[in-house]
Amino acid sequence: MADSLASVIDQLTSISHFLSQPLVSTLFHYHPNNLGQSSFDPPPEWEGWWDWAGGECEAEVGTELDDPWLLLLKYYNSRVSGHECSDKTSSVPPILRSLINDACRLALPRDIGHVYPDGRCSITQLPNDLKSQALPGMSPKKAHEVVQMVGFLETLLSFQSSLGSLNHVVDIGAGQAYVSRMLRDRLNLHVLALDWSEVQKRGASRKDASKIARRARPTQREVVNADTASPASDTRRTALGPKAGSMTYVTTRIDADSLVSATDAWVEDRQAVISNNDATPEVTPVLFIGLHACGSLTTDIIRAFLSARRAGTSLRSTSWMPHGAVIVGCCYNLMRSEDFPLSRTLAAQVPSQWLRSQQSLGSARLAMRKIAWRALLEDHLQETQDDVGHERLGSEANDGGTAEMHRNCRKRLGRLNDQVFANWETFADVVRTKLHLQLADWSRPPSRVEKRIEVMHMLRCIVGPVVEAYILLDRFAWISEELKGTPMAVELVNLFDQASGSGRNVAIVIHPS
Q: What domain range is 145 assigned to?
């Protein structure tokens, strides 16, 4: 572990230097909306790409593939994939080529099955991808994640001898309990499903009732799913015998302290239930899991894990101890500032997947248009607010309607349907209607402004995986330091296929070494 920790510190240092470069740091100092203002003055660090981004590029007949942001994407994709660059990317400024080269070098590999730091999983082979299975009530992306998560947990519990007797799992941020139910029904595990939302709990209850009803009349689809049970699940069933698992759903505010308290209460209840019939272990082994532990929930789970481990190895009396954890984080932009200083800088997009197909490229075009067109509104909205302000000064005694208009101008635009972005005129009309603005037609700003916004956003997306690597490696180093001298190890395991839509695909896995 010492060698791994030294290596990760070196990587963190390199990433820190990269993110501190003025060209990179200024990408997050400004928002794309700032570029939509005619008064915007680009920082001097952007001089090497500003004119190029706003210039005219030669396009192939009938295509738009030569927009500057797409040239960046194609160059980036060639670096990620190792393929030769297209001749058309030769116009990409050297300063941006260098940035992209460094970003590709510093980001973590995201191929499914890759494990950090060794490149291979020390636990066992990852489960086969079963994303083709249709699971009731789930999108293909969600089904892929649930099946992969449960499959990985099966192998972890079945082939780690020190986890062979573990049959208690805490699912943190359980949502509608898709993973919890599969662990209960497939592996006969006892699961505490924790979530903060009563709405999610009611949804989970409906799903559970529906599943019980379907058991009497299984569909062909469910028969297929049952027939694909893995050898790992068979091993678990054989080891645990015929006893059925259970699921307890609890809604509570979740942080490190409440997670420990909720687990305390649940384990004590479980021990009371079984004490009359079976021998109860002095300390119940527990596994923490979190599929998409949003924002700071990941760090809260880790803090609870470390706290409970310390309590379990001290002289204090405790009824349980965590023996492992599998946590997939997400929504890094929602992290508390004390959990990471760069928490607000991560772009959620996965540009390495944008050229995968015409459909994914079309989705990327639409997403880019949404960012750019929202930014292009800045001057129009600012003019509206200025006009309203002048009217207020001239009619303080009778400003009821004007005050309402002023409030409307400051509303969030919110989410708009994709069809709204078919053309600028439709977009402008919908914005005026939604914000209740009685204005003349809005002309579309010059194309060079839109192109610069697109390039700036593309660069933020390219740097995003480096920021995510910074966060993941920081957590890896922290856990490694805390586990030093204990019989535990930590790895970063790529559980999901990003091509399935699972952008956040890295699990923090803590297990006996």
A: 115-348+488-512
